[in-house]
Prior knowledge:
Layout: H1 8-13, E1 21-24, H2 31-43, E2 52-56, H3 59-75, H4 84-103, E3 116-118, H5 119-129, E4 140-141, H6 145-161, H7 166-178, H8 183-195, H9 197-204, H10 212-234, H11 240-245, H12 264-274, H13 296-309, H14 313-322, H15 332-359, E5 361-362, H16 364-377, H17 385-388, E6 394-397, H18 405-414, E7 425-430, H19 445-453, E8 461-464, E9 467-468, H20 473-486, E10 504-505, E11 515-521, H21 525-542, E12 548-552, H22 559-568, E13 573-574, H23 584-597, H24 602-610, H25 618-625, H26 632-635, H27 639-643, H28 647-665, H29 672-683, H30 691-709, H31 715-722, E14 734-738, H32 739-742, E15 747-752, E16 767-771, E17 777-781, H33 792-817, E18 820-830, H34 842-845, H35 903-916, H36 924-933, H37 938-957, H38 961-964, E19 972-979, E20 982-992, E21 995-1001, H39 1012-1038, E22 1042-1048, E23 1053-1056
Parallel strand pairs: 1-7, 1-8, 2-3, 2-6, 4-5, 6-7, 9-10, 11-18, 12-14, 12-15, 13-14, 15-18, 21-22
Antiparallel strand pairs: 16-17, 19-20, 20-21, 22-23
Amino acid sequence: MNEVSADNKQREQALDVRDSFIVQAPAGSGKTELLTQRYLSLLGEIGQPENILAMTFTNKAADELKHRVLQYLSDANLAPPQEPHKLKTFELATKALVQSRKLGWDLLNNPSRVKIGTIDALSSLIVSKYPTVEQLIPPRVMADRYEYEALYRSAAENTFKLLEDDEFQESIASVLLHLDNHVEKFYRLLTQMLAKREQWLPRLYQQGALEIDVLERTAQKIISEHLLKLEAITLSFFDEDFFEAIQANELVVNALPEANIKVLDAWIGLTNLCLTSKGQWRKTVNKRQGFDPALKGQKQAFIAILEKLSPEDELREALFELTLLPELRHNEADHQVLRNISQVLKLAVAQLKLLFVTNNVFDFAEVGLNAAEKLNDLSGVADVALFLDYKIEHLLIDEFQDTSYSQFSLIEKLLSNWQDDSGKTLFLVGDPMQSIYRFRESQVGIFLQVKENGIADISLKYLQLNTNFRSIKSIVDSNNRYFSAIFPNNDNVVNGAIHYAHSQSLSEQTNDNTVCFYPFLSGMAEQEAMQVCEIVQGTLTDNSVDEIAVLVRSRSHLEGIVSAFQLNGIDYEAVKTTPLRSHLFTRDLLSLTRAMLSLGDKLAWLALLRSPWCGLLLKDLLILGESDEMTVYHQLSDDNIIENLSGDANQRVQVVWPILANAIQSDGRFSFVERFSGALDKLDPQKSLSDEKRSIKSQFLGILHHCESLDSLALEPIEAMLAELYAPSHVARVKLMTIHQAKGLEFDVVIMPGLGRAGKSDTSPLIQLKALANRDLLLAPIKSAFDKNESKTYVYLKHLDKKQNHFEMMRLLYVAMSRAKKKIHLLGHVNEDKESAKNTLLNFILPFFKNSMNMPTAPTENTKKDAEPPQLVRYEPLPIVDNINPDIADESFNLSQNLDLKYQSALGTVVHRYLEFEIFAPDRKSIDAKLLQLGVSSALRDLQSETILRLLDNTKKDSTFDWLFQKRDSTQVEAEFGSAEGSIIIDRLFVEKGILWIVDFKTASPALGEPSDVFIGRIKKQHQEQLCHYQGVLEGIFQLPVKAAIYCPAIPKLICL
């Protein structure tokens, strides 16, 4: 293996902290390492660590980058490594650590000074710095899809209700008529637009965007640019022989037209002459194309020319796209529809904002839009320091190819006052070949634009890395061969086209059959899954340490493979691939929830009694299910009915019924989550649960808590939240995941099944809108219900979208295949002609295997076995439960004693906040607002408010109060310090008579009847290890004797350890 990479010069140049760069770093090139080295280089030069801000796009990536920086700083205290590439990082970290000590930063003990986060987090910070009057209580950012989609839908419905308002009636009625008064379609299209409003809202209402002449000028620019491109391409193909063959054709010109809109019809005439309506080269021509039957020789000559042109896809596509260009002229009727739709969209956004205010929530799009608005309002501010409380001099952005237009706009505003000679630098790293997040509005064209034109007033030096540290030479060479042919030859900002950049492996290792392809015919999904099993089993046998990844385009493509793995006993790790809803334990939890929510839900009660917690046989369930006059719940308390059940069922009901009855009859005394959790702990004790079931239980209780806190405890929101969660999985050598989840990871062996399966098709939006590279806007409304065809502009914009998807699919295939270190296995379905379906990943790679592949034999009969239904599982013996009087609520459901409940943490958070700011008599409105923000349900807020006021009053009256909250220069609250195990946060610390006191606030209360000394002993034992760790960390930092104490307002008492 080579010791020095071929692009070492570029890597060294990237560490010059005087210059700004945009770096293209392909898969396996050590992009994150280079970014880390740049960050360390800057730390060794600047005056304050806060002068550097590094941003990426996910919390996981930000955490990884921050961990790397701190780990390298920590390792700088050790002996230098021997490897050259590690030595460079070590030297940079050493220099940064010297600077840290010299200027007193103490970064290892103050990790919060390392400013690395996400762009969304920066948006949130900007918004929080300048809240409106309505936002003095910070809105909660909704993370769950079901929640924000429900608000989008409500906003659409509220917009429809404005139909009764005279001011808006005409616009809404016009849009409804355009949709043939299809109200549900009106709701669906508005909901879709609201979900993506950050993409169109800043542009749709900019000055002049909807004026006819502006739209027509934009269309003219697009057509003119395409004609210039077409002229350049056709010059070398439409030569003298071409025009000689059509000289007698009266329908077309006899010379190449100019690239001018005035002769657009002449260009279209040439296109119709050469291509069919579907955009393919003509095989024959006749009188309709202008060839008289007598011109046989010219016809043959022309067809011969077209045959020679048949390999020229670039020419064919350029000609065909001429027929898809937008309209040159807009009529007033179409323009009025556009204005009406824009008015309705504006109303929908207003309704959504009202819902945000009412519920004190935001979605991520609103955070980004508000951040941009704040920066616009303060566009004259000289520095972003006013927002962040520190001055940014160096900005680093990772994964820049994933930037959306709204994020890019925010970055531009942050840099609006930067100059090339100001000493400030920008460092952008990314790989446009790995841009695969269009569904999140990322635009690869932004990378191309910035590479060519810079950003704001900052010009950037372009660096391209090409060394691959990940894969063996055979893998890199194969990918070079495939993707240099698959990717387009030239970049195109509008289409999102990216040319392929070759990589060079640092490894010299080559293996035979590095990339293998396994074809299957339609209907052979089971055989494909079994082939995956054979590959996995063979790999595990040949190598005991290799990691294997099974990567798919969509989670649904894994269903048959999971079943095959289970059938063959293959241990696997499913990374967010198995829906939580499909797990049998989840179904049992859902049955218990439904039963407790509705005594009349017969199906839920029967399912609950069939679950392992009770395990009734079918013959007994039939008896309980016969009655339509009496609920199953009430039947369980009827001795006459119970006597008709089998002896086994009678015994089981006697155990389970009191538990369920107690949970039902405790309604009003305890929250639903408390009652549910209490019943579950008796039906299925925590200690008897597997780790997997404990994880599912925790997630499910979180859903119930969230729904109850929002006063929306019903089956629909619970089901909606479940739909977004996935069953937990354990670590294994075989990973199952989507290609998107695998981005940034690497595996020894990559298996890619389902390549012949197509992805989902997109639905037509209410309005198609595209912001072009020059910031011009082109838009068109959806086809009217009364029109036969869509407008040409709408068709053009759909075509652009289709092209961008096409190029992104190429990149998706590249991301998947570049994860492999040693071996790639490709599997997919073809037809009997060895062709794959369009819109599939296989369509790109198949030409390389088509001539050499052996076609499989079609199955002669359906050998697929029917899936066996789940067998009855029930506990033997039943859980032992103490006698319970169903008429008396079980006090063991007490909130403070149930470890599964989430409410206690909300109470603790509020009390901590008041103690931190030394507020001991807050008003009830303030407390209620904070509890609402933390998701405490209205039914519990009064009780929690009373508890909070009591705890604060206890603190104020405590004899140690004056000493504990005395004003000292040394006092710090919520102080963060670093340690080898991670950062720690101290609630309150101060120095008193040469002793460093650390005080941890705990809001726990004694159990009912628990003596104070017993409670104190329990609290000490519970937190002893944690506080001893704090003591050790702070003794090393402050070089002072340290005393640790716990303060419990519930007693109240300062408990010294």
